[in-house]
Design a protein that fits this description.
Strand order of the largest sheet: 2-3-4-1-5
GO cellular component, one term: nuclear origin of replication recognition complex
GO molecular function: ATP binding; DNA replication origin binding
Largest sheet: 5 strands, parallel
Structural class: alpha/beta
Shape: flat
Organism: Seriola lalandi dorsalis
InterPro entries: AAA_16, ORC5, ORC5_C, ORC5_lid, P-loop_NTPase
Protein name: Origin recognition complex subunit 5
């Protein structure tokens, strides 16, 4: 906090730029907004997610400090020099009585903008008494541009400890139950999820998602609030199933409860299925799984036939070798390299997707959920190989949710 106070000195020139970093939901934005509001400091908050271009960023800053008239002076496609010129004009007409602050949320997205934008933002104090505060989830060493720039003052927000999470989550208690009862529930929840998830938002979501199940024996009159052990035995299998949906946030609380009720009504033939057969996957994970299934059950040389336009006419009789008369579905899934999976994925997905870290993390999530199996050794980092581990019925059900006819792309069904 002492570093933060040093950067927020309203009556004199503050430090030109602050770089505040830490994992998601560690209090960065909240602390900054409370400080700026309580100290009544002039500031402009810019979300780099919403401001997808430099023009929107410049407009938001001028609008916050000088009003609509200043923002309207920007040309249709403003450059950095246009922003500097207008900002300097407005500063001469309305000089700052105290330091102005620009708070850039999700500042790591600035790395994808023009190379000169970030260095210029860090030097804005050369124009006026202004401090730029960058809020980021990554460290400065991974943020610093290759061309070099003014070094900001670094401030790290560490993750919440288990005790701090216990205190924060316990404040969300249900009014129908005592604080001690809800605190014991949070203690049980953290005992299960703390080792795999320390994100406050995700833990808060999980707490709200599973609390009704935790209270069932109490509502039925089977136990008392003090029977923590019996309550734990009732909720334990439910929490273990919920661990499969950590960070897969496309399932709402109502949908999750409906899925659990469906599972309880299943027949004996269906009870042997894994819990993930009822978990809704993220949108792109579904297409990744579809691409993996196609890569496992289609010969590699048929990819051109299915996924390349204007490939020419190829007859199956000429395509089929003697040793390929057996159905690929009877032979089982075959391993495929990562680059083939991504090539099929980009062909079948109905929108343009950049090869970001999010796509690769979803592949890892599919492996964790045992929907994909990694068959290459861990030391083969350059060419990992996978196999699809789901059935035909399962992949058809997934395909229907995204309106994709997978049968048209399977070689066995030509």
């Amino acid at each position: 906090i002492s570093h933060l106070e040093f950067g927020l000195l309203p009556q004199q020139y503050s430090y030109p730029s602050l770089f505040i970093y830490g994992h998601r939901a560690s209090g960065k934005s909240h602390v900054m907004h409370v400080l700026l509001k309580e100290l009544e400091l002039p500031h402009a908050t810019v979300s780099c997610v919403e401001c997808v271009s430099a023009a929107l960023l410049f407009e938001q800053v001028l609008l916050s400090f000088f009003g609509c008239e200043a923002a309207s002076l920007l040309p249709r496609s403003p450059s950095l020099s246009d922003f500097v010129r207008i900002y300097r004009q407005q500063c001469s007409q309305s000089p700052a009585k105290q330091t102005r602050y620009i708070v850039m949320e999700k500042a790591e997205l600035l790395r994808d903008t023009d190379a000169n934008l970030l260095p210029a933002l860090l030097r804005l104090q050369e124009l006026d008494n202004i401090t730029v505060i960058l809020l980021s989830e990554i460290a400065w060493d991974k943020f610093r541009p290759n061309t070099g720039c003014f070094e900001p003052l670094l401030l790290h927000f560490p993750d919440y400890s288990k005790g701090e999470l216990q205190q924060i989550l316990s404040q969300d208690r249900h009014p129908s139950y005592s604080a001690e009862f809800y605190s014991s529930y949070i203690n049980i929840l953290l005992g299960v999820f703390y080792s795999v998830c320390r994100d406050l938002r995700e833990l808060r979501h999980l707490a709200a998602l599973n609390f009704s199940k935790f209270c069932e024996p109490l509502a039925e009159g089977k136990v008392k609030e003090t029977d923590t052990h019996k309550l734990w035995r009732n909720i334990e299998p439910h929490l273990k199933k919920a661990m499969q949906t950590v960070y897969l946030r496309e399932v709402s609380s109502v949908q999750w409860e409906q899925m659990q009720q469906m599972e309880e009504k299943e027949t004996g033939a269906l009870r042997g299925l894994s819990a993930h057969t009822h978990v809704e996957l993220p949108y792109y994970s579904k297409f990744l799984l579809i691409a993996a299934y196609l890569a496992s059950y289609n010969p590699a040389r048929t990819d051109k036939r299915f996924f390349v336009k204007h490939h020419g006419k190829i007859r199956k009789t000429n395509f089929l070798k003697k040793n390929e008369k057996t159905s690929n579905h009877l032979l089982g899934p075959k391993p495929f390299p990562l680059d083939r999976l991504l090539a099929i994925f980009y062909s079948v997905v109905d929108s343009r997707v950049a090869p970001t870290a999010s796509i690769f993390s979803q592949i890892s999530s599919l492996v964790t959920l045992q929907l994909l199996t990694q068959v290459s050794h861990d030391d083969q980092l350059d060419a990992p190989k996978y196999k699809c581990a789901v059935s035909m019925d399962f992949i058809c059900a997934i395909s229907r949710t995204v309106n994709f006819d997978i049968v048209k792309y399977l070689y066995d069904f030509l």
